[in-house]
## 1
Amino acid sequence: MSLKKESLSVREAQKLVLLSQRLPTQKVVGSAQEATLSAIEHLGYVQIDTISVIERAHHHTLYNRNSRYKSAHIQELIADKKVFEYWAHAASYLPMTDYRFTLPRKQAIASGKQKHWYKRDTKLMKSVAERIKAEGPLMAKDFDKKGKKHGEWKTAPTKQALENLFMEGELMISKRVNFHKVYDLTERVLPSSLNTTTPTNDEYGRFLVKKYLQANGLGKLTEMTYLIKKTKPLVTQALKNMLADGEIEQIRVADNEYYILPESLELLSKPLARKKLNILSPFDNLLIQRKRTSDIFEFDYLLECYVPQQKRKFGYFTLPILWDGKLVARMDSKADRKEKVLNINQLTLEPGLRKTEAFADALTKELQPFMKFNECNSVVLHGIEPPSLKFEFLRKFQSLDFQ
């Protein structure tokens, strides 16, 4: 039986969001690969990113939901036709069970109602598709590379044709080889039993609402439609219908009004593992929407790898740190895999963090599996803010060098 509440404290809202996000890392049943699939199905998507100073974002996000995660899981799940690549708010891995809800975007792009960033060359697209049909799965490098690169993306025409066919749904990514996409015909990638009917507007709108709220605990219209083009009218209508049907409720947190699934309030009766610490990816689902992160966790975060070096405050690639149910620090890190050293260029504690010794203990405990995850066996702390704590943290980290 669900609870009924009109408002939540900020602390309650934080707890609800974290438990909905399956953070801190929770114990999971079944095989390690099943736990990875469960995480992707629950979150709805996991963002793919190319930056590899620390293990890539998609692996990092799943590592924080599944302590037994292995980087091979994603490609295994793609081979088993349980996960596929497409676009959420960015390039992502999605559960195959949600495939039909990518069709509205694909059909809008194919019809010209929604623009993609590459200009369509229908003749070249047809030629590329016919070659894949005849030869089987191919990578961009398998096509003629003599074509002049053009457009602001400076991408080869055949690569642009492949990406257009992918975004329109004619092609899918059957696997990756050294992170390079391998394209194949959609009918050869999809499971034969999969429901591929296009959802109605009402189905699609309700899907976006429910999927978001299940994974995030509470949300606003702007958050549910974040970077998903032309969905605000559908989601607005879905919210109205679902409120009338009692499927969702409105709830206030401080000065913000959110939507929530009534059954999600039951999570508030469950414990939150506050002593467990997580070092998060900048692209983790918990904090990818920076304004939301600021509103709920009072944590202002900017990924500074896109900021000129002289203007950086915290470092090139800072990893937010979750502990005690809050975002309490950020760690600018780089894994030197050749030397097997995890470099912490700068560890910055939030001004409100008072229990520094307990935090140092929790960080030390988490750093050991995190180092292994990043193929490192030692750690070097180069700087800390405030500097007066450097000796305390260095003393804790002494136990971390291992072979």
## 2
Amino acid sequence: MRSPCRALLILLALLTPLQAWAMDMRIEGQSVILSGAVDGSECTALGAILSQAAIRTVVLTNSGGGNARAGYCVGDLIRERGLSTVIRGRCASSCSRMWLGGIERTLEGPNCRVGLHGNYASSGGLLPDAPHRLRSWIPQRAPHVDRVLMEQWTSLPTNNWMMYFYNDKAEVCEGRACTPLAGRNARNAGLATQ
């Protein structure tokens, strides 16, 4: 008797989607809060929310990124809808593409940060076409972006490198080892609008 029950439990576990890996999306007033890893389903899920609720702001929180295509798609969707974006906490990699879609882009508080780098293969190496794509996409969303900094972050050699921008500072990091970018921040780098 144990064997059929165990087999049924295993079958159910295999058939159950792994929603824990997808970004969490919840509505708060006229905002939708997105948090967690970007798995690729976000554009469809956010599109469904936007078709049913009067959303003005997308809040991005505690995301280290993930699926690059989803980042671009959500960023484009946010821009098409004329929404604002806010970061609470950390929003890095593909999450930064989502944030850059906002008409108005802010970082909420001194410890909030946006992390930018290129697009990478599963091995961690920079994809050959990634810098070109980013260098054409980013200025369409952030026309005042510092192009020298953009050249640097889109060419970071591996996915363990990141350029972080805060309200009052910026730094380039390889893993946990970070070097300040003197005098730079999210606003004067042309990323945040407020």
## 3
Amino acid sequence: MHPLAESVQAKFPQAVVSVYEWRGDVALTIARAQVHEVCRYLRDDSKMDFDYMVHVSSVDWPDDEERFEVVWEVYSIRHRHRIRIKTRVPEQDCYVDSMVDIWRGAEFMEREVFDMMGIRFKNHPDLRRILMPDEYDEGWPLRKDFPLQGKGWRDTFDFLKEGTS
């Protein structure tokens, strides 16, 4: 097992759901209830020192009980190592703790995940739409069950009509 994963596993044995390593990249799936605590440890522990938020994203697994996966990728500039933290979120209880209080750089990226997938970030300082119009209320565009043809209003654009130049 990768030394980073071993350290997290030793500190939080009940929180680590799974560890995946491939070509030196490490991904830990953490129980949703402990993900904030684990992330704080990753930033604050001097051997970890993950001081840079690289990316926040999400994955939609529509056939799974815990439909969504939220992914934070962080990097340590001093130690030159990275880790990917994942947690699963059920559709009917679609929230996870925000990491903005740990990594300020997560703010806009968490807003994008909210805007596109509908996953709410608890304690986020400004959770509102960032890509879609404020009044948009027709679903979550990156969910796999979002209709490809739209919900009607997009079909009325002139450039979509046959023979329009």
